[in-house]
Amino acid sequence: MARWDPDAHGRLLAAALDLFAEQGYEQTTTAQIAQRAGLTRTTLFRLFKDKREILFQGQGALIDAAVEGIRDAPEEALPVEVLKAGITAMARVHSVGQQEVGKRLMRLLVSSPELQERAAFKRSSITEAIEDQLSARLGDARLAGILADVGVRSYYAAYEAWTTLSSDDSLIDLILNELSGYRAVLRSDQWS
């Protein structure tokens, strides 16, 4: 594979996932990843600050999609509908082909405290971005915080199910199902 072949991001991700599975996250070097991807270490470091970031390269796209979905929700939409617009926009970032990548990533996360820490940071960053956008849109920081927490919790539970279960449900369907479950709990008399 020539260094100038397209999709350096995707090639680095595939190489990293393969090498991490073969020899473990800690034992894999950036030089090995770059070589497997047919790139130089300089190119790898131009695109990512370290090997961990290769796995989390989609964070910015998820945040951008959520913020845009919230911003573009109809003016008359109820707060939960605004949230749905943001969370389902995040789901549209994922293609069906990414299910297998997600499966592999979930297995890696279990095996590495360093990756678990980075995953927690990613989740926190997404939640904060959604909360900020909801707060600006709704004018109620407390409501925005609750909605962001429930929305991100629903997204991650659905994503885990989407990547690990044998289901024909789309990621969006799984997210909406999770959101419905949380709405039912919040409406129940358990809050009295």
TrEMBL record:
Q: Which InterPro entries match?
A: Homeodomain-like_sf, HTH-type_TetR-like_transc_reg, HTH_TetR
For this entry, the protein name equals HTH tetR-type domain-containing protein
Which Pfam families does the UniProt entry name for this protein?
TetR_N
- Keyword Glycoprotein on this protein? no
Q: Which residues form the signal peptide?
A: none
The keyword Transferase belongs to this UniProt entry's keyword annotation: no
Its domain of life? Bacteria
Domain HTH tetR-type: residue ranges: 6-66
DNA-binding region range list: 29-48
GO MF: DNA-binding transcription factor activity; transcription cis-regulatory region binding
**Coiled coil (residue ranges):** none
Keyword entries, A-Z:
DNA-binding, Transcription, Transcription regulation
